[in-house]
Amino acid sequence: DVDTAVKIQVIVDQVNADIATENAISKIDTYADDQTVVPTTADYSIAGVDDVTDENLDRVNAAIAELATGDVDTAVKIQAIVNQVNTDIATENAIGKIDTYADDQAVVPTTADYLTAGVDDVTNENLDRVNAAIALLNTGDVDTAVKIQVIVNQVNADIATEDAITKIDTYADD
Q1: The Cα angle at residue 114 between residues 113 and 120, in degrees rounded to 5
Q2: What pTM value is reported for the model?
Q3: Is the model's pLDDT at 161 over the cut of 80?
Q4: From the DSSP assignment, how many helices (H) and strands (E) are in the chain?
Q5: Measured between alpha carbons, how far is 98 from 21 in angstroms, rounded to an integer?
Q6: How far apart are CA 59 and CA 8, in angstroms?
Q7: Residue 77 — pLDDT band, cuts 50, 70, 90?
């Protein structure tokens, strides 16, 4: 029932909000083919897309610009792009933290940093050994996930060898 001005206003407000959302999505979708009008953080917010900030806006827009109209014609499709950009940024930051640790041990990488960097097999049990190995290197020696993984694999191989030698020694003593 729309029998009062208040109820009518609620409907009008919702229609206006829906139009604003459609316009924002259209602006972002158009940007994929035509970078004349640049989407803002407000456009993403109005479109119903989360996690676009002043810090990542240029990266998000660059990712959108690599696509074609239609690739980002819904809030869900746009959100997927934003999520990927944010994942990429987090990965780069984690790799940067680990790489910096090679020269400056002021900020110690955690297991979460290695996981975010895309590096497997770093646990609470081997973290100190992995970080010690990284600290022996120089910035640039571990500036990719692949390079870091090589170090982690070597540390884990060394630990496995030490464990095997300990078991052999223990067996020999028995």
Answers
A1: 150
A2: 0.84
A3: yes
A4: 7, 0
A5: 41
A6: 41
A7: very high
